[in-house]
Structures are given as C-alpha cells and as structure tokens.
Hints:
Layout: E1 3-9, H1 13-23, E2 31-38, E3 41-48, H2 51-59, E4 67-73, E5 88-89, E6 95-103, H3 106-115, H4 127-135, H5 141-151, E7 154-162, E8 169-174, E9 180-183, E10 187-191, E11 203-206, E12 211-216, E13 219-224, E14 229-230, E15 235-236, H6 241-245, H7 252-258, H8 260-268, E16 272-273, E17 278-279, H9 288-292, E18 296-301, H10 303-320, E19 324-328, H11 329-332, E20 343-349, H12 355-366, E21 370-375, H13 381-385, E22 388-391, H14 404-423, H15 429-450, H16 453-462, E23 468-473, H17 478-492, E24 495-500, E25 517-521, H18 528-540, E26 544-550, H19 554-559, E27 562-566, H20 574-592
Parallel strand pairs: 18-19, 18-20, 20-21, 21-22, 23-24, 23-25, 25-26, 26-27
Antiparallel strand pairs: 1-4, 1-10, 2-3, 2-4, 5-6, 6-7, 7-8, 8-12, 9-10, 9-11, 11-15, 12-13, 13-14, 16-17
The structure holds 2-deoxy-2-amino glucitol-6-phosphate.
Amino acid sequence: MCGIVGYVGHGDAVSFILPGLRRLEYRGYDSAGIATVSGMSLDVRKATGKIADLEALLASDRPPGTLGVGHTRWATHGRPSDANAHPHLDCQGQLAIVHNGIIDNYRELRKALAAEGHRFRSQTDTEVIAHLIERYQTNGLEAAVLRAARDLRGAYAVACVASTAPNTLIAIRRGSSPLVIGFGRGETFLASDIPALLGHTREILVLEEGELAVLTPDSVTLRTLDGLPIRRQPSTVLWDGEAAEKSGYPHFMLKEIFEQPEAVRNTVRERVDLEGPEIQIPELGLKDRELAGLNRLCFVACGSSWHAALVGKYLVEAFARLPVEVDIASEFRYRRPVLDSRVLTVAISQSGETADTLAALREARDQGSRAVAICNVVGSSLAREADGVVYTRAGIEIGVASTKAFTAQLAAVTLLGLKLGLARSLVDPALVRQVAKGLWELPDLMSVVLQQRDTIRGIAERFVERDHFLYLGRGLHYPLALEGALKLKEISYIHAEGYPAGEMKHGPIALIDQRMPVVAIVPRGSTYEKMTSNVEEVKARDGVVIAVATEGDEAIAAKADLVIPVPPSLEWLQPVLIAEALQLLAYYVGVLRGCDVDQPRNLAKSVTVE
Ligand code: AGP
C-alpha cells in the first residue's frame, strides 16, 4: 500500500507534494521520491527511508516546476533502495510514473520490453509501466497511457507526468488501489487518499475502477480505459485529517479488518496459475528439487504469527505429507533443536523485526537448515537474513493487533503447502486447482463475513462486562481458538483462553458457568459432529455458547445461544473467514469497554527485545 500525490497548476508543485506525502506516510514509508516538470525538463529526486529523508535531500536543492508527482513506497517487489523508489522513468528520461498496486504480468512485459531494447533501472514491477507508455508514445501521452493500460494485468493506481506534456497529469486506476482528484482554483490535485488534499480543497472526485483522468490546471477530463468519455460531478468531503487517515473508520484496526479481502487478494495475486496448476513463489529461493529433498519443516514465530504457523502445520502435512514442527520462537533455542540441511525452517513475522523470531532463524541457519521468511515488510531484518522470502502483501499494518497481516499469513502458508505438495508430487493437482481457485475467490467470501459487523457488535454488547472467555476449536480451527482468545485479551484486557475442544473433558469443563461465555468454532466440516457435542456439553452445564458456524446451520442455531455465521467454503480456507469473525468480536468488545484498540496498554507493534 503506497502513497501517491500529484499536482498541476500555477503554483509550486513541491509545496503541495512534500506535505501531501507526509500526510500519506501512514500508507507506508520505506522510500520516497518526486518528479517535477519545469519548462521542457523533468527532474527526479529519490531517497530511501522516510519522507523526512526526501525533504532533507530537497532542502538545499529544491526542484522548480508547476507539475509533478510524488510517491511514498511500501515495497512489494524489490527491496527498499533509491533505485527501487518511485518515480520510475522511461528510457529517454522524459516520462515519470508512480504506482500503487501489483502488476501481475510484469515479468513477461519486462522480458518483451527488454528484447525491444528497453533498459531497466530497478527490480520493481512498476517500471514496466513507464517503458510500456514509452513504447506507445506516438500519438500523445493520453493515448499512450490508454494503450499501455491494455497490456497491464493486476491492480494499479498510476500517475504519470512527462516533459513533453508540461501542463498535463494523467492518472489511471484498475482494481482496489484508490485515487482521489481535488479541485482547486487554477490548480488540480491528485492523491491516494483524502488527507493529502485537506487544507487545499474539499471538492473531490474519486477515480473509479477502470477509469483514466487527464488533469490540467483548470480542468479534469474523465474516460473509461476504453477511451469513452465520462461525466461526474465532484463532491464535498467533510472529514477532518485524522478521520481521513482512517478512511472514515473510527480506528486503524477496523480499517485494517476491512482491508483484509484486498490483503489476501494481493498475497495470492500472480502466485496462482489455475491452468497448471502452478504455485509460483520465485522469491522462496528454493528449487522444486530442493523442496522435494526436504524431510521436515520447522515453523518458528510469535503471537498471532505462531497461530498462523499452527494452521500451516495442518496444511503442509495435508498437502505435502511433510512432517512439520511448530515452535514458539522464544522457546525454540531452549530445546536445542536437531536440524540439518534437509530441514526447512520457516520464520513467520509481520514486522520482520521480532527479536525472538530473528534469533530462532539464526539458530536454525547455524545448524545448517535452509531458512525462509513469511514476512510483511520488504527489506526487514528477517527478510534480509533468510535464504528466501514469501512476502505477504497486506500493506502497512498500523493497529498493534495483527489482523490483515494474519489472514495474509494464512494465505501464504496455504500457498506454501500447495507448493511443497506439488514439488514432492504428493498432492493431487485437482486438489491444488480446487484450493488455488478457492484462494482466488476467498476475498469475496471474506467480504460476506465483514457484512456481519452489526450482528457481531450486538453480540459483543452482551458480554462487555465479562471477566473470562473460553474459545474452543478442533483440528484446523484450534489455532483460531488461540488467535480469537489472543485478540480479545490484547485489546479488551479480558482474560481469554483458547483450547483444543477435545481437551474440555480433561479439565476446562470445570470452568463452565453462566458467567464465562464459550466461543465455539463449529463450521460444517470434518470436526462438526465432535464440536456439536462440545456445544451440548457446555449447554448441559448452563454455559453460554457463541457459535461461529456455517450460515444457515439451523441445528447449531437451536443449540447455541448466539451465532456468528460464516459462508460455506473449502475447509482448508475456513480459518481466514473465522479469523475475521473473531477479530470483529474482539474489536467491538474492546471498543465498548473503552479500550485503546489501536494501541493497547503495554503492547508494541514490533517486539524487538527478547
Ligand atoms: C498480534 O495481534 C500481536 N500484536 C502479537 O502477538 C504479534 O503477532 C507478535 O508480536 C509477532 O509479531 P510479528 O508477526 O511482527 O513477528
């Protein structure tokens, strides 16, 4: 998730772009850059790091110009560096583009363009856009951008300026990456999000899916990407700056809960080829024959990432028939693990900076194990030290409680399990195709769960004053019981425990009473009958059951006190849907208890101490 800013008018472009980028820094900041047009020359400046580093670069040598674009990057392809920072240029250095999103077919485009003599300066997917526009630059900038868009596959928001078109800023959008146009007097603004526009204008127009906009100092022209004209009036935005950073949500956590369908789609994007079927994770850094030679896989992680690793165990053992161990990273070293070159260690971490997980990765590598990371931050310590990386593309996660990063991790471990199964020729390609198709369609089901927000809020209202919760799950859902309990603990400060439901009769059933709600994860599937018995056990002891169940399941509705419905899905993919439901439950309980759900007490987003 990156930040884009653009300006065309009679004022100084940098005076809008730099503050605008700073207002978008919450969208990601591993590098930043700016391109301005003055007369017939294009000036590009870039800096790795935060916006402040770019500001320092410009302080002593500020580029002139009344036209420009700026970008703050959250890397998905190519680690943070000046070369990979946006804007990216064409070969001639006359055209600059900035981009938010993922170009699925960038590898094949890059190969074709290179064969035509285009020389690339970065490792990014973005750069192919600049060279594509250059390829078609025979009939003006707008026509070239429209023609280039026809070759692009994926989700993107792109802004483009050229020294050959001094009063024109062109923007295109396809898929979920937003772009907003702001109307000024003799100047026109562009940004990924509204905060960058506030203070300059409240008259805005959102560029919709599949649209192109041509911005000049005094006009905005809209077209479809097929070139057909569109007419639409601007609207007036009433948000203040803080509300705008949260896109109108009251908290970053809720915003990020609702960003999960896009996070999972972006994590799966360009990695699933249904034809093959093929699972493509080139950054994993291991060839299929190396994967086929493994005799064990060892997950190491902390917190929610450890819960994702537990789900990964079920999936890897099911798809690849490879023995899997899962360790809490802070415990890993104390058991003096027995590892060698045929063991693959997989470290899962949203931040890539968790000290315990870093230490575990180093321990594994010291013992000769190949080590890969599943990580959300390109260029983080974990990503740099691992032999390979599977990046989750959840975008920057600001809420301390992991939500979209967690479900993106679930998508990543699913892909890893399928990849291992194919490499070991131990999974039916038909199953791979079925699960891969399910992953691709999963964001739509995730949106269905999110529509239950009011139902879940209503349930939360009934239990705000409780002191203890018990979460029960079996098999693939046991890790979700742990995750649901952690979410509730960390943002509402209520004591909550996740337990394998089969263990109820070995102790926890003594806890059951009317005061302690029991969240039972009981969707249809292989654990349904046994979980239904657990629900009956709790009810027989006057317990209160909140069931997370398949929508329309009347049998469970008759047994449980309350139901949070999730849509039917492949059993392997149910954890993602259940996670969303439990995140919303914890969020509303926390908010109703007046807790700071974005920054819970005593917690930090990244635990860089052991
Ligand atoms: C999750 O909601 C927590 N904030 C925490 O448990 C987190 O998952 C853990 O600290 C691991 O962080 P990481 O994924 O960045 O390594």
